[in-house]
């Protein structure tokens, strides 16, 4: 009888432990699935990149505002990024030092039309 009682206690404890581990595993798997979906969405989203012409125009405007004193080129060097960051801070934008769409719009730089990489060419008739 004592042996039967001992076996019952051990089995009950094992069942509870197994159920608990199963529950933790399910929760972990759900979390990993959500993270994977989030990562896929980020990777699939098109990234905005300023064109060379937009970079030059932004440099000209930053120079007029006294935030940039370097040469006008189509390169985003450390001095240009510092000027962009200062402009962003002064204008309530997130100070990233990058020429994102919001910064270009705030600078008044016309944004050129972007072609979608996934767009298919028109079918030939």
> Hey, roughly how much beta strand do the residues contain?
under 5%
In quaternary terms, these chains amount to single chain
Write the element-wise H/E pattern from the N-terminal end onward. HHHH
Terminal CA distance reads 88 Å
Helix content: 55-70%
Annotation field: number of helices: 4
Largest β sheet strand count, sense and barrel closure: none
Q: What does the average pLDDT come to?
A: 79
Give the number of DSSP strands. Answer: 0
Rg (CA only): 29 Å
Given helix and strand content, the structural type is mainly alpha
**How would the global form be characterised?**
elongated
Low-confidence stretches: 116-120
What labels describe this entry?
elongated; mainly alpha; 4 helices; 61% helix; 125 residues
What does this entry look like structurally?
This protein is mainly α and 125 residues long. The chain has a domain at 52-107. The chain has 4 helices and no strands. The chain has helices at residues 2-44, 52-64, 78-90, 101-107. The model is unreliable at 116-120 (pLDDT under 50).
């Amino acid at each position: 009888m004592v042996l039967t009682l001992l076996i019952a206690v051990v089995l009950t404890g094992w069942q509870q432990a197994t159920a608990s581990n199963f529950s933790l595993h399910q929760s972990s798997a759900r979390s990993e699935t959500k993270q994977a979906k989030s990562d896929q969405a980020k990777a699939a989203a098109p990234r905005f990149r300023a064109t060379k012409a937009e970079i030059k125009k932004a440099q000209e405007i930053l120079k007029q505002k006294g935030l940039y004193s370097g040469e006008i080129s189509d390169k985003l060097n450390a001095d240009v990024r510092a000027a962009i960051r200062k402009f962003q801070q002064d204008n309530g934008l997130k100070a990233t030092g990058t020429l994102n769409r919001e910064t270009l719009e705030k600078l008044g730089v016309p944004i050129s039309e972007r072609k979608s990489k996934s767009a298919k060419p028109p079918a030939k008739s």
